[in-house]
Amino acid sequence: MKRLRKFVIYAFLTAALISFRTLSVLAQENGSGQEISLNAQSAVLMDGETGRILYEKNGDTVRPMASTTKIMTCILALEYGNSDDVVTVSSYAAGQPKVHLGAAAGRRFYLRDLLYSLMLESHNDTAVMIAEHIGGTADMFAKLMNEKAVELGCENTYFITPNGLDASVTLEDGTEKLHSTTAAELAAIMRYCVWESPKSREFLEITRTQNHYFTDIDGKGSYSCVNHNALFSSMEHLLSGKTGFTGGAGYSYVAALEDEGRKYVIALLGCGWPPHKTWKWSDARKLLNYGTSHYELKEIFQQPELKPLAVENGIARSGDLAETAVTNITLNLKEEEKNLNVLMKEGEKAEARVILPDTLKAPVAAGTEVGRVDYFLEGMRVQSYPVYAEETVEELTPRWCLEQILQRYLE
Q1: In this predicted structure, what is the pLDDT of residue 369?
Q2: Residue 99: is the preceding peptide bond cis (ω within 30°)?
Q3: Same topology for domains 27-294 and 309-410, yes or no?
């Protein structure tokens, strides 16, 4: 009887511990304790305006990214190339595995047509054609991709191929690198493509197109592309998206949505393997529905109290040497600029922090940036406004003192 009682107690405690750990994991995944059941090994829901992570599941885990790679290939081609550029197919590009355009070596295409082939059909040979045209070689283009990743703050992303096929390289220091990213950084790249790049409009035009027909320049072949982003027909306000699959990566997906001024980006990595091709669609809907149902735009701008700053060794307005020189400071914002709408859910709090030195050193020119006001949401800085000196304060020099003495003497 005692053994049975001990066993029951042990079983109860074990079940309680498992439940506690499960709840802890759920809370860690979404930051709120509310469960979102996802198939993806890594997932992120991002605020497209600020880059703040609204939900994550292993968002910083490095994983292969498959053809979601092609959003970077596309945006670099748009930024570095010209739509009328003529691209010639090399034998290396023609030899890429399926899915491919299937163009023979020597065929010539306009870059604008190849971008539809890249993004709508995800053709692997097309990605290499574009990479060779922009970078000279696929390897040099990968260098451009990695430079852009660093520029965007994506320190855990490493590109080897322009098409996303599984690949690895050994660096000179012996470090082995995989063609990989994280869900958080893939979302950041998509955010750049859709809203921040100078070529974002062209990127959206391509990725939102449903069908595109073209021929090579010499008319030797004709090609038809169909958009395979299934969510376009079923999810309102979807702006862009890109799927991917390799044996090493599994299914992946990255997308952007904008609804009544609310901007969202999702990224899914390792979202199942065959036959679970549709898991990415259900995961995407869950993430986007979570964002639109839990987050609303709220105004958090508040005019901070900005007291005048003392200016060391400065000349006071009155010219009195016994008086401390000061300058008023300002955000220098127009009335229509005094707003900051950010995505927030119930219970979240925002704060403004004024960052200023104790004093300034003369001379200080009007319009000089002297500090900033940072706005934080749940510990993350979402906006920063520079603070400027309103008045010029001249430096107190022996010459100025002598001039003042002479002036008073002559009076």
Answers
A1: 96
A2: yes
A3: no
Packing angle of the helix pair 124-135, 70-80 (nearest 10 deg): 40
Site of tokens 């401390």: 324
The CATH architecture to which 309-410 belongs is: Sandwich (2.60)
CB neighbours of 339 closer than 8 A, spacing ≥ 6?
299, 301
Q: How far apart are CA 380 and CA 184, in angstroms?
A: 15
| pLDDT computed for residue 299 by the predictor | 94
User: Which residue, among 194, 285, 290, 244, has the nearest Cα to 63 in the 3D structure?
Assistant: 244
CA distance 338 to 53: 24
Tokens 């439940």 -> residue: 19
Give CA angle at 38 (34, 39), nearest 5°. 160
Output the pLDDT for position 80.
98
Of the candidates 259, 385, 282, the residue with the CA atom closest to the CA atom of residue 329:
385
SS3 44: strand
User: In this structure, which amino acid lies at residue 142?
Assistant: A
Q: Report which residue type is found at 127.
A: A
CATH code for 27-294? 3.40.710.10
User: Measured in Å, how far apart are the chain's first and last C-alpha atoms?
Assistant: 112
What stretches in the chain show pLDDT beneath 70?
Answer: 1-35, 411
Residue ranges covered by each domain of the chain: 27-294, 309-410
**Can you give the pLDDT at residue 17?**
38
Q: Do 345 and 295 form a contact (C-beta atoms < 8 A)?
A: yes
Buried b (16+ CB within 10 A) or exposed e, 111-135: bbbbbbbbbbbbbbbbbbbbbbbbb
pLDDT in tens, 44-66: 999 999 999 999 999 999 999 99
Model confidence pLDDT, tens digit, residues 356-411: 999 999 999 999 999 999 999 988 999 999 999 999 999 988 887 777 777 777 76
Q: What is the pLDDT of residue 234?
A: 87
Average pLDDT score, the chain: 90
The CA-based dihedral angle spanning residues 235, 240, 246, 250, taken in that order and rounded to the nearest 10 degrees: -40
